[in-house]
Specification:
single chain; 355 residues; alpha/beta; Isopropylmalate Dehydrogenase; 2 domains; eleven-stranded mixed β-sheet; 13 helices; 11 strands; 41% helix; 15% strand; globular; disordered N terminus; binds 1,4-dihydronicotinamide adenine dinucleotide; binds the ligand NCC(=O)COP(=O)(O)O; metal ion binding
């Protein structure tokens, strides 16, 4: 199923050939490694033109270092000398496995460069390798993540973090939008408002139609409290505003099916069954709206850690990213799995081709 869809899109992208920028993320993490591994896959690179944004000398050093690891296999890596690289040299020494102000400065600069050149029309989209938010902070950049920098530079106020994962078992696709993202758990209930939820739902419905061709979406919306509040006994947000908001949204969007608020503990049962092919996938939803970061991302990573893709919706260009982080604990060991990075490039190609 997956390969059939790929070949269809490969055909449609033949004339399109997406131009993608790939900033390598935090140079102390696994970003360079997963980029060098992902770009060794000609099945992916034949469909697009990729420009890597990072330090050429650092990429060469990473490649040499990985060659000395016990599990090195030449065909799993592309030699950086064979890549188009926008070379931005490092301004300070980097210690592999330790994010710091220097590595934060570098990853911030790579992303800024990618955004500026994309906004200038040089690229159709950006596939970002992971950065460490703490390293950005150490470098003096106070952003919750790459998403917010992308939105700010693109001049958009409404944007969303949507995770996408295609099951290798059933070809069913899990799509999870987060209503709130990188904020402390203690602030979540106050951050959630009907206005915020409407903005996220607008983005999701638009994305499902434009990028996935789903005109009559079925969307599941999670509750916040245990048992969705149990009629107010275990929390009142559902009764106070979430249920009335959902009723208004159902009136406003008759073309959509909006189910919820679904008790968070059972929200992910059907997606899991659809993922493993235990139920007819049409019994699951086209997308899931989770109210906070871990409510949505625990199931995404449980099911699809090796292949899920983070997409930023609401931007004037495509942005995708692997679902994982900098993985400082395994940086430089040669054991980082590039599958999610590959999936991120593949999805960017498909989304550019569709648009
Ligand atoms: N898109 C992005 O830029 C993201 C950045 N981060 C950042 O990454 C840093 C580290 O975050 P963590 O919570 O530790 O998550 P992480 O995803 O970096 O690591 C979690 C665990 O998964 C493993 N892992 C991650 N990617 C892997 C891969 N490709 N192959 C094999 N094993 C892999 C790691 O070794 C670690 O044991 C943080 O600073 C965080 O802000 C986290 C998620 C996404
Ligand atoms: N947990 C998702 C994540 O950290 C992605 O953040 P961003 O850097 O893509 O904004």
């Amino acid at each position: 199923m997956y390969s059939l869809e790929r070949s269809h899109l490969a055909t449609s992208s033949k004339t399109i050939r997406p131009r993608l920028a790939v900033p390598v993320g935090d140079p102390a993490g696994i970003g360079s490694e997963v980029v060098l591994k992902a770009l060794a896959d000609t099945e992916i690179t034949q469909d697009c033109d990729i420009t890597v944004i990072g330090s050429r000398s650092h990429l060469n050093e990473t490649y040499q270092h990985l060659q000395n690891q016990p599990n090195f296999t030449a065909q799993n890596y592309v030699n950086p000398n064979e890549l188009p690289i926008k070379d931005i040299d490092l301004q300070s020494h980097i210690t592999i496995g330790t994010g710091n102000a220097g590595s934060g400065e570098a990853s911030f600069t790579y992303l800024e460069n990618a955004i500026a050149r994309t906004l200038a029309g040089e690229f159709d989209g950006i596939v970002t390798a992971p950065i460490a938010k703490s390293a950005w902070k150490a470098a003096g950049y106070n952003y919750p993540g790459q998403t917010e920098l992308l939105a700010q530079k693109a001049g958009v106020e409404k944007f969303g973090m949507l995770f996408f994962g295609k099951s290798p078992h059933s070809a069913w696709t899990l799509r999870t939008l987060l209503a709130t993202t990188h904020i402390p758990l203690r602030q979540v209930a106050d951050a959630l408002t009907p206005q915020l939820m409407t903005a996220k739902l607008d983005l999701l419905v638009e994305c499902l139609e434009r990028d996935f061709g789903i005109k009559q979406p079925r969307i599941a919306i999670a509750g916040l409290n245990p048992h969705s509040g149990e009629q107010g006994q275990l929390g009142t947000e559902e009764q106070d505003w979430l249920i009335p908001w959902l009723e208004q949204e159902r009136d406003r969007r008759p073309q959509a099916i909006l189910d919820g608020p679904i008790p968070p503990d059972t929200m992910w049962v059907k997606p899991s069954q659809a993922w493993y092919g235990a139920i007819d996938p049409t019994k699951a939803h086209d997308a899931y709206l989770a109210l906070y970061h871990d409510q949505g991302l625990i199931p995404v990573k449980q099911l699809a850690f090796d292949r899920a893709v983070n997409t930023s919706i609401g931007l004037p260009f495509i942005r995708t990213s692997p679902d994982h982080g900098t993985a400082f604990d395994i940086a430089g060991l040669g054991i980082a799995d590039p599958s999610s990075m590959k999936a991120a490039i593949q999805l960017a190609i498909e989304m550019v081709a569709r648009r």
